[in-house]
Amino acid sequence: MEKAFAAKNYKLDATLIARAQQIAAQLHMSAEGFVNQYESFALVSDWSNDVTGQRLKTLSEWLETEQRKENSKPRGAGTGTGGVKILLQAAKPTWEDLPDKIEFPTPSAKRQALDPAALNPGPGPGSKSDIKPVPGAAPGSAQQAPRGAALTPAHAGAQNAWATTPVAASAGRAAGATPAPPSAFSMRTNRGQVMASLNDHLPGPEAATAAAGGRGGVAVRPLGQPALDGGEHLFMMEVLESKIAALDERIMDFADAVTAATRATAATLPAPSPAPAGTPGPAATPEAAAAVAPAGTPPPPASSTPGGALTPGAGGGSGAAAPAPEEAAGAAQPLQHSVADISHQPVWVAGRVLAEAEGAPLNGESLLLEGCREASGGARVRLDVSCLPGYRLFPGQSVCAYGLNPTGSRFIAQHLVTHVPPPPPGASALPEAARAGGLSLVVAAGPFCLSEDLAYSPLEELLAYCSASPPDVLMLLGPFVDGEHPGLAAGAADRTAEAVLRDEVLRRLAAWRTAAGASTTLALMPAVRDVTAVPVMPQPPMAAAAAAVGPADKVVALQNPATAAMGPLVVAAGSADVLKALSAAELARVPPAAAGAAPVERLPALAGHLLGQRSFFPLYPAPLGTCLDTSHYSQLALAAAPDLLLLPSDLAPFAKVLRPEAWAAAAPPGLVAAGGCAAAAAAPVVMVNPGRLSRGGAGGSFAHVVVAPGGGPLHERVRVEVKRV
Question: The DNA polymerase alpha/delta/epsilon subunit B domain covers which part of the protein (predicted)?
Fold first, then answer.
């Protein structure tokens, strides 16, 4: 193989040579034949002489597809690549294949460059090449139909007698047809590989399975959120007034949370000692001005000159006005001042962060702060964050700012509160006795089938894993029938989406429960991309689908998003990819870490926005495809502090612990030091991105969470493994 590639002037290392030999052996090709195919493919796709693993994978998938097409032809039609000249289609280019010198005049031109159909369109749906006759079928019969046609088998036994498309091929092939070569998913060698882990020194899933024998079933109970009905009040066209009311409600709720936090922490802070005799009055020295400052606010700035160097903790100026009675007691009152009020002394204000142009990315030089209608009349001013040592901001973020507004049009922030954790769950929701128990939880997020068929092979592999190590709870997050699946999006499936959900998902889950998962509680949560669910977030639960799988106490339908109690854990989860949306929208200035302190990682910090904003989707406006219904703001609220936050995303899977020190600088003054409203309010939270169970034509990942029984903090008892399916 190495000599064959060298003869064509291609460069590749030893690992790629072994991979190329493996692909050629699977396809029953000689080394020279494989290199010839690669050369032809490289010429059409405009590849360089450097051979990469991605290019070998692309060629392998294309050759497998061509073999399937040849095998599906009648035996007398002269199949086989030996006597047929294959017309190569251009491979879908990746970003590394697009030369930097190409300049795209419009975004649509760039999308066309990455679209294989635009580069080399194939035959249309009505062309002859789309007809796949079944061996033995008479010409012109109902079995000989164009691809994508709505074919109905003549009888129940004939439903798998034909396959007109790769999607329909998942139903099975005729008994006399040549079997297709194995797919890349079935030939994978990384099954069970651990991609990310947390606390791997704790007992693993095997020990949890043995301990679960006497534990019995674990109940899954939704917490905190109002019940969402069947979707009759959800709609795609929002009324402007309801949208404005929801955004105002978010600002006021966040301001009330800051007020409550500063009022609670003021009682734990030491009171200032009385000044000795002969000390100048409060307005005479900066130290005295700082002594009478509200306990819930930073000291006043060193200078009231607009644009001066204002930093939290600097000495105060002279002539400070007497604090309000509520503020003197230690509570910040952000709703008592408008963001547009002229203030030469520091005040608290509340609002939300906006970009200067709607839809534009945030820029540190052009941030806007919009107040609520009750306190600010909806006024907008520029937000100056140049004096802050660090921040993490995104559009729609609710904030409480402490600083000056010398001109009425530019608020100079000295301190910015963006993080107030939700309160802990009540004792009635999760008794202390339950906290000491153990738990085995498997979490997987859709899609659950490969992009090349509807066979749901990854879901079958996941259920096989759960049969070997039955968990207490199996949590599946949608999409179950993905609207972005190539076959469904192109209308090439031979069944309706409801039939796919019933035949491939629900019946498989019900059969697994009967065979091996009777002791496991199953939790189902839909996604916006689910074809069979209401395409608006928040989403009502899949009650009918759950009832088809099992009884209500063993198969629980959760709305999207949801907070639920599972054994010793309070689990918060949502199927929307909020991490990816926040990653694209966030504007961050991260100060250098203190000596001896570990730097804050970006992915857990992104997930921390949900806790700090007390919302499952704090970003506004939401990206396209989210279908966010802001009128149901209460169902998006994170009502209780979770122990485990599950956020499936297309970003890299991870399992991390977010500690209070990571967001202490963005919290109300003294919240972390004083423990907040309760000690558990500032407890560390375990955050997990289990990834997707399938990624295109390849397998994805899932997470196995094991909680060791006993005492101690929960984040020290939780072991997480994110594994490849």
Answer: 442-656
| 600, 588 contact by CB (below 8 A) | no
Answering whether pTM is above 0.90, one says no
Judged on CB neighbours under 10 Å (0-12, 13-18, 19+), 160 is middle
Q: With bands split at pLDDT 50, 70 and 90, how would you rate the model's confidence at 350?
A: very high
User: Tokens standing for 384?
Assistant: 């100056």
**Cβ atoms of 681 and 260 closer than 8 Å:** no
Structure tokens at 470: 């039955």
Closest CA to 64 of 700, 724, 698: 698
Instruction: Pick the range with the lowest mean pLDDT from 79-93, 298-312, 354-368, 373-387.
Output: 298-312
Q: Judge whether residue 523 has pLDDT over 80.
A: yes
CA distances from 123 to 119, 120, 130, 344, 359 (A): 13, 10, 8, 71, 38
DSSP helix/strand/coil, 545: helix
Query: Token match 């105060």: residue?
Result: 316
Please, what's the largest Cα pairwise distance for the chain?
111
* Stretch (H or E) spanning 580: helix 578-585
Beta bridge partners of 557: 524
- Comparing CA positions, the residue from 288, 400, 296 lying closest to residue 348 is 400
Q: How far apart are the first and last CA of the chain?
A: 31
Whether the per-residue pLDDT at 43 is higher than 80: the answer is no
| 471 alpha carbon, distance to own chain's centre | 23
Here the tokens at position 289 are 């001005």
Is the CB of residue 705 less than 8 Å from the CB of residue 719? yes
Q: Per CATH, the architecture of 290-314+325-417 is what?
A: Beta Barrel (2.40)
List the chain domain ranges: 2-121, 194-231+422-590+600-724, 290-314+325-417
How do beta strands 439-445 and 701-707 pair?
A: antiparallel
Helix or strand or coil: residue 397? coil
C-alpha–C-alpha distance, residues 576 and 636, integer Å: 12
- The pLDDT score that the predictor gives to residue 401 is 95
Phi and psi at 14, nearest 5°, equal: -65, -40
- Please determine, looking at this structure, whether the domain spanning 194-231+422-590+600-724 carries the CATH number 3.60.21.60: yes
Q: What percent of the chain has pLDDT over 90?
A: 42
Of 402, 287, 308, whose CA–CA distance to 349 is shortest?
402
* Spatial separation of the C-alpha atoms in residues 141 and 389, rounded to whole Å: 74
